[in-house]
Specification:
alpha/beta, Aspartate Aminotransferase, domain 1, Aspartate Aminotransferase, domain 2, 2 domains, seven-stranded mixed β-sheet, three-stranded antiparallel β-sheet, 14 strands
């Protein structure tokens, strides 16, 4: 009898997610062999000893008796009211509970938002580098991800004129990730206003991934996009995962803001897709009002003496002291995105480097090309470990890069 394999969806061949891909699988195999690894591939606070704040845990524990039933597909009414008030305080227009959607993390809401928007062949303008879920979700919803450049020589900030040059009759939306993953860039208000102007003139939906909104360093200031967008249609995404260190609770939200007459059909489409999955995780929703109105537990981690700040400082120092690394200072989020430079960069392949770093030095990083960039000389690390651990990580990274540099020097000397 002939055995027929199950055929998978063809477009999956276009999807990349190296953050949990081949290298992560190899790391799992090495751990099964007894190797001890330092894994810097995922911004997962709980894996590095962080805990969700006590007042959030207490809010869930105190409401467990009320978490058994399904809730409304958009989320608990009181939670949506708290989120609407939060966005009104930030200057978002028309922030009312009916425009708030709660999901199983921002990841689910990104997929729903794109599924409600795109017809086959429609285009979405996505930053390069990006958090690769945005490109993947666009592809899997039959859209086309068109990448605009956020160049390292420009501090990883985009150029609004270049964004506009990519607009076609098929363009439906502009994605903005601020503060940025993987680069740590924080967008100034003037730049955001320029991008809003592009969206307004071309009748595009703005999609603002703001999951790291309150994680900024030094003098960087986060500017919420909805307040700048005003009447222009805008989706703002946030959640408990990063600022509140509660990734496993899978509690995210989005606000649909802008002039009401332009949003009706799209609002109904999102509501339909939300209803098809019944509702999001109910226990986690009870932590949202406490997160919005309770004590600020993230800022102490992001200022001098705070754990995130000190680890960032350790990364900056390591890159400054290395002849093989260059770093655009991350101003926000939980990552650094160093570049390999000099003799070590000759013939450098970020994926092969990441594999060798894992196999030889026991450190797992994410190759920069995984974030949909054309160059192959960057890699991403998370800032979640202790500063001392990060110092050791970069000692191992520099050791491997020095071997690359020496090999290139010997080869060049032989050719000469």
């Amino acid at each position: 009898m002939t055995q027929h394999r199950i055929i998978t969806r063809e477009r999956l061949s276009e999807v990349r997610y190296e953050i949990r891909g081949e290298l992560a699988r190899r790391a799992h195999e090495l751990e099964a062999q007894g190797r001890t690894l330092i894994k810097l591939n995922i911004g997962n606070p709980g894996a590095f000893g962080f805990r969700a704040p006590d007042h959030l845990q207490e809010a869930i524990a105190g409401n467990l008796p009320h978490t058994d039933p399904y809730t409304h597909q958009q989320g608990l009414p009181a939670v949506r009211e708290a989120l609407a008030a939060h966005y009104r305080e930030r200057g978002a227009p028309n922030a009312i509970p009916e425009r708030i959607f709660i999901g199983n993390g921002v990841s689910e809401l990104i997929d729903i938002a794109l599924r409600a928007l795109l017809n086959p062949g429609d285009e979405v303008l996505v930053p390069s580098p990006d958090y690769p879920l945005w490109t993947a979700a666009t592809i899997l919803n039959d859209g086309v991800a068109v990448h605009y450049d956020c160049r390292p020589e420009n501090g990883f900030l985009p150029d609004a004129a270049q964004i506009e040059s990519l607009v076609t009759p098929r363009t439906r939306a502009i994605v903005i990730i601020n503060p940025n993953n993987p680069t740590g860039a924080v967008y100034p208000r003037e730049l955001l206003a320029q991008i809003v102007d592009v969206a307004r003139r071309h009748h595009l939906l703005l999609m603002a991934d703001e999951i790291y909104d309150n994680i900024t360093y030094d003098d960087a200031k986060f500017e919420p996009l909805a307040a700048i967008a005003g009447d222009s249609p805008c989706l703002s995404f946030g959640g408990l995962s990063k600022v509140h260190r509660a990734c496993g609770w899978r509690t995210g939200w989005m606000l649909l803001s802008g002039e009401a007459t332009r949003l009706g059909d799209y609002h109904h489409a999102i509501d339909l897709l939300g209803a098809l999955r019944l509702c999001s995780n109910v226990p986690g929703q009870f932590a949202v009002p406490a997160a919005l109105t309770g004590p600020d537990t993230i800022t102490p981690l992001c200022v001098s003496g705070g754990r995130l700040y000190d680890t960032r400082a350790a990364v900056v120092k390591a890159c400054e002291q290395s002849e093989h690394l260059s770093l655009v200072l991350p101003q926000g989020a939980l990552y650094a995105f160093p570049a390999v430079v000099g003799d070590a960069a000759e013939g450098f392949d970020d994926h092969l480097f990441a594999l060798e770093l894992l196999e030889v030095e026991g450190v797992l990083v994410v190759p920069g090309s995984s974030f949909n960039v054309k160059y192959r000389n960057h890699f991403r690390v998370t800032l979640l470990p202790e500063a001392g651990t990060m110092g050791e990580v970069f000692r191992r990274i520099d050791s491997l890069l020095e071997r690359y540099a020496q090999a290139n020097r010997r080869r060049n000397a032989a050719v000469a």
